[in-house]
Automatic annotation (TrEMBL):
GO molecular function, a single term: ATP binding
Keywords of the record: ATP-binding, Cell membrane, Ion transport, Membrane, Nucleotide-binding, Potassium, Potassium transport, Transmembrane, Transmembrane helix, Transport
Keyword hit for Ribonucleoprotein: no
Membrane topology: Single-pass membrane protein
Source lineage: Bacteria, Pseudomonadati, Bacteroidota, Bacteroidia, Bacteroidales
Protein species of origin: Dysgonomonas alginatilytica
InterPro entries assigned: KdpC
Main location as per UniProt: membrane
Stated role: Part of the high-affinity ATP-driven potassium transport (or Kdp) system, which catalyzes the hydrolysis of ATP coupled with the electrogenic transport of potassium into the cytoplasm. This subunit acts as a catalytic chaperone that increases the ATP-binding affinity of the ATP-hydrolyzing subunit KdpB by the formation of a transient KdpB/KdpC/ATP ternary complex.
GN (gene name): kdpC
Location in or out of the cell: Cell membrane
Family: Belongs to the KdpC family.
PANTHER family, per database record: POTASSIUM-TRANSPORTING ATPASE C CHAIN, POTASSIUM-TRANSPORTING ATPASE KDPC SUBUNIT
Ranges annotated as spanning the membrane: 12-31
Protein's name in the database: Potassium-transporting ATPase KdpC subunit
Record carries keyword Transport: yes
Length: 186
C-alpha cells in the first residue's frame, strides 16, 4: 500500500508540474510569436479601440446585428446562460429575440431566421455570425442606409472568412469588421 501511495504522489506532482507550469509556459511562449503577442487583433476606429475577437453589441438598424450574448458582451463575465432548450425562461428569451428580429426585418419569415441570430454562443462573446445571418440582414441595411442591396451584398461577400486551411470550421463573418466596412463604404 505504501508503494501505491508513493506512486500516486509522484504522479500528482508530475502532472501538476506538467499542466500547471510546463504547458502554460509553452502556450504563452507560442502566443508571443503571434501578432500582438497573442492578445488578439486590435482595431482602432472612430477614436475607439476594439478587440475583433470579442463580440460587440450593435442595436441600430443601420448595422448588422451580432449574435446575442448571455453576458451582455462583458468579456470579464464570459459564459453562456446554461439553460436547457426546454427551459421556459430560455424559450421566452428566444421568442423575444425572434419577435424583435421580425419587427426590424419585416420581409423575413420566422422559419428563415438563422439560429445564430437568436441564440447566444457558449462564451456569450462570439464576434462572428454565419454568412446566412449576414445575408438575411442585407435588405434592412440597404433600405435604412439608402444603398443598393447589391452594394451591401458585395460588402458582405468581401468580409467572408474562409475555414482554417479550408478544412476546419465554417465560413463566417466578423460583425465588427463588416460594420466598419459598412461605415467606410463610399
Amino acid at each position: 500500500m505504501k508503494k501505491d501511495i508513493i506512486s500516486a504522489i509522484r504522479l500528482t506532482v508530475a502532472t501538476i508540474i506538467l499542466f500547471a507550469v510546463v504547458y502554460p509556459v509553452c502556450v504563452w511562449g507560442i502566443a508571443q510569436l503571434a501578432p500582438n503577442s497573442g492578445k488578439g487583433e486590435i482595431i482602432e476606429y472612430a477614436g475607439n479601440t476594439y478587440y475583433s475577437n470579442i463580440g460587440q453589441s450593435f442595436t441600430s438598424d443601420k448595422y448588422f446585428q451580432s449574435r446575442p450574448s448571455a453576458v451582455n458582451y462583458n468579456a470579464a463575465g464570459s459564459g453562456g446562460s446554461n439553460k436547457a432548450p426546454s427551459n421556459s425562461e430560455y424559450l421566452e428569451t428566444v421568442k423575444a429575440r425572434i419577435d424583435t428580429f421580425l419587427i426590424n426585418n419585416p420581409s423575413i419569415q420566422k422559419n428563415e431566421i438563422p439560429v445564430d441570430l437568436i441564440t447566444a454562443s457558449a462564451s456569450g462573446l462570439d464576434p462572428n455570425i454565419s454568412v446566412q445571418a449576414a445575408h438575411i440582414q442585407v435588405k434592412r441595411i440597404a433600405k435604412v442606409r439608402g444603398l443598393s442591396e447589391t452594394d451591401v451584398q458585395k460588402l458582405v461577400d468581401e468580409q467572408i472568412e474562409k475555414p482554417l486551411l479550408g478544412l476546419f470550421g465554417t465560413e463566417k463573418i466578423n460583425v465588427l469588421k463588416l460594420n466598419i466596412a459598412l461605415d467606410t463604404f463610399r
